[in-house]
Amino acid sequence: MNSARRPTPPGVPDQAESQAEAPLPASPRALPATEVLIGRIGWLVTLRWVAVVGSLVFIEGARRLLPIHVHFSRLLAVLAVLALYNLGAMLLLRRLRRKRQEDPSPAGIPPPNRPVGKLARFLLPRTPPGVEYYDRQAAEAALLAAAQIALDLVFLALLLHFAGGVENPLRVFFIFHVIVASILLSAPATYCVATWGFLLFAAVSLGELAGLIPHYSLQGHWRPDGYLDPRLVGTQVFLLGVTLYVGAYLASSIAARLRRREIDVVVLSRHLEAKARRLEEAYEELSLAEKAKSEYMRKVAHELRGPLGTIKTALNVALNSARDALPPKTRGLIERAERRAGELAEMTKELLALALARGGEALAHPVPMDLGEVARGVLDELAARAAEAEITLTVDIARGLPQLQGNPAAMADLMRNLLANAVRYTPPGGSVTFRLAAEGGEVVLEVADTGIGIEPEALERIFEEFYRSEAARAFAPDGTGLGLAIVKAVVDRHRGTIAVESEPGRGTRFVVRLPSSAGAQGGPAGSPA
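Given the sequence above, the corresponding C-alpha cells read:
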C-alpha cells in the first residue's frame, strides 16, 4: 500500500534511504498457513494411531462382554494394514516437514515456477479475495490430507463390513471424517468427502443386500435377516447420507467462520505489531530529541553561567566602589541590572541542573548514598532562610535508612527545590515539615507546608518547565518555574514516584517514594527506563 510522502528539502538526506519504513500489512500474507496445515495433518496421523489402538481394545471388549459375534481375524487384518498405512503417512509427513525446513516459501507467496494447481486450489480452504498465502508445499499437504481421509473412509467401510455392515451402530463414525475434512480442506472438498463416505457405506449395505458381497452378522444386535430388508437398509443408508451432508454443511460453515476470524485476528496482530514498531521508533526519536534538547540546554547554561557571573560581579564592584558618587537614578539602574543578572544566573544554574537530570549524565555512574546525610546538608542551607521568613521548620529523619544507588548531588537538588518552594510559598508564621523514613522497601521523602496551596486546575501542570500558577506569581513574583521540573526529572531517573496533595489556602504536601533496590533492578539507577 503506497502512501504519499512529503518532498525532502534540498540538502537533507531522504529518511527512507537510511531507514526502511515497515508498511502495515494489507493482507495476511505472512500467515504460517502451510505450517498450520502440516501440523494438523500430524494431528490426523496421531488420531489414527489412537483409532487403531482403540479399535483393538473395543473389538476385544465387545467379543468378551457383549452378546455379539465379532470376526476378530478379519478385523485384525484390516487394522494391521491400517497401521502400516499410517506408518507410511507418518514418513511422508516427516519428509514434507523436512522439505519445508530446507526450502521455506517467502512470506506465504508461492515460489517462482511452482504454482499451486487447480486440484490444490479446490482442496485448500478458501481465503478472502486478494489473499493468497498457500504455496506449493501447502498444496502437497492438502493432497496428502485428502488422500488420507479418503483411505480412512475405505478402511472404516471395511471394518464395518466385517463387523455387521449396516447393522453396526458405529456407522456414525463416518461423520468424524467429515468433521476432520472441514478442518483441513475446503467446503467443496468436505462435501466430496461426505459423498465418498456415503457411497462406501451404500456400497457395503446394498452389496450385502444384493448378495454381491458376504454379510458378517453380529448375531444378536439385529434380527438375522435385517440386512436383507430393503426398507430397513434403505432407511439406514438414507439417514447416514443426511447425517453426512448436514454434518458437512455445519462443520464446513463453522470452520470457514473460524478461519475468517483467525485471519482477522492475525491481520490485526500484524497491524498492531507494525504500529508498535512505529511507536517504538517514534519513542526513540522523541528520546533522541529530548536528549538533544537537554544537551543544548546544558551547553547554553554552561556558556552563560561564566559571563553572567562576571557581569554580576562587575556590577557589584562598580556599585560598591562608587555608590555615594553615583546619581540616584544611575545607582538604581545598576542595582536593577545586578538583580536581573542574579536572576539570570539562578535560572542558568537551574537549567543546567534540569539538563543534567533529564540527560542522565550525572546519574550514569550511581553510587551508594545515605539520604539522611544528604538531607542534613540541604537543611543546613535552608534553615537560615526559613528562620528569616519566620517559618517553623520541623525535621523528622528516621534512623537506619537503607542506602540507595544514585547521585547525591541530584538528590540534593530535589530536596533543595522542594524545601525552597515550601518556604517561598508559605506566609510568615507558617510551618514546613520535612520527613524521611523507610516504608515497605522504599524510602519515603515528604515535604509539607501550610502555604498558599495549589489550585486544582494547576496541579496537572506544576511539573512542566517554566510553569508557574497565577497564585504563585501573585504571592512571589520572582521565580523560574524550573524547580519542580528538576524534582520530577530526578525522581524519574531514580525510578521513583512523586505525588502531590494540595488545598488552596491550606498548604501542599509532596511525597516522593524511592525504591531501596533501585540500583539492582534494570541496570543503573541513572539509565533510562
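The first strand starts at residue 367 and ends at 369. Try to locate this feature in the C-alpha cell string yourself.
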